[in-house]
Structure formats: structure tokens, C-alpha cells
Design a protein that fits this description.
60 residues, mainly alpha, 2 helices, 77% helix, elongated, apoptosis, Bcl-2 Bcl-2 homology region 1-3 domain-containing protein, Bcl-2_fam, BH domain binding, Bcl2-like
Length: 60
């Protein structure tokens, strides 16, 4: 989704939606441990890569 280094609002929304869908699926089909992995990865990714882009654009 971000491999090319291009960030935009559509991709950020897609990231959150995709993560949401994975979490819902994991709640139905997977052990609870995968849920924490998904949340931790998403939070770290947003904090390290997406948040600086958002700040650079003047915020939400």
C-alpha cells in the first residue's frame, strides 16, 4: 500500500479499513494473540510513518 513511498488520505483510510477488516476476521477465526499483533503493527506503522506525513500536511 505504501511501498512506493507515496502517502495520501485515500491510502491512509484504506490502511485503517483493511486493518479493521483483518481484526474483525481474526476475532471470528483466529486466536486472540493475532489481534494484538495486528493492533501493535498498525499503531507502530502509523506512529513512525503515517503520523509524520499527517503533521507535515498540517494535521487532520
Amino acid at each position: 500500500l505504501f511501498r512506493d513511498g507515496i502517502y495520501n488520505w485515500g491510502r491512509i483510510v484504506t490502511l485503517f479499513f483493511f486493518t479493521y477488516k483483518l481484526i474483525i476476521k481474526s476475532l471470528r477465526d483466529q486466536p486472540a494473540s493475532i489481534l494484538q499483533v495486528l493492533v501493535d503493527w498498525t499503531v507502530r506503522f502509523v506512529k513512525e510513518l503515517v503520523a509524520p506525513w499527517i503533521v507535515g500536511k498540517g494535521g487532520w
